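Many introductory courses stop at the sequence. We go one step further.
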Amino acid sequence: MAKQESNKENKEFTPAELGALAHLYRGEIYRSTTWRTRLDNTTNWAVVTTGIAFSITFSTPNSSSLPLLLVGFLVIVFLVFEARRYRYFNVWRARARHMETELYAPMLLGTKYEKNGDWNKVLANDYIYPRHHISLIRACGRRLRRSYAWILSIQFIAYYGKIAIHPVPLADLSELYQRTAIGPVDGHYVLLIHALFHLSWIIIAVATLYHDKVSRLKSRRYKGIS
């Protein structure tokens, strides 16, 4: 009987435990903020390099459009770097968010926040067995939808705008293939590769969006939220 009463008492956090959780929460917020800044840095690199490519390509009517073509691949490199950083950021953000919804929100509402429930076990397991919460491809999809889709779309429009107006406006389709040719590579193949390049990131962005929606729905059902 005494043991059962002791277990009931232990369901509530002690002041010392709540203090430790507060410091833990502050640490997770600090780490998520630091990694969020690193995400912004990578996006800035992509924007700056795209701007440099614009400056070179549109400096004169006879300037080559090749820098605009190549910068798209460089932006993808930055996207992969940022996706790797996002996977770490997502861990710290998820932990902080978990404490906000499962501990601090009930505390503010005046409801019970027991330490023997599932939420603290989920958090404890995440500390004992640390892992990334999402795959690299899903991280790429999220960063594409948030930032990089706009950069790549502008690159796409600028490239075809350059081809269409410089050095003089296009007269026919055969001239388009001549302008897009790169050395021995025929313009048909260059256009095909460029189209596949942009189609691939669009597919990744849309497919991962669907995956995120399904995962979010499963999570809400698990928590009993309609």
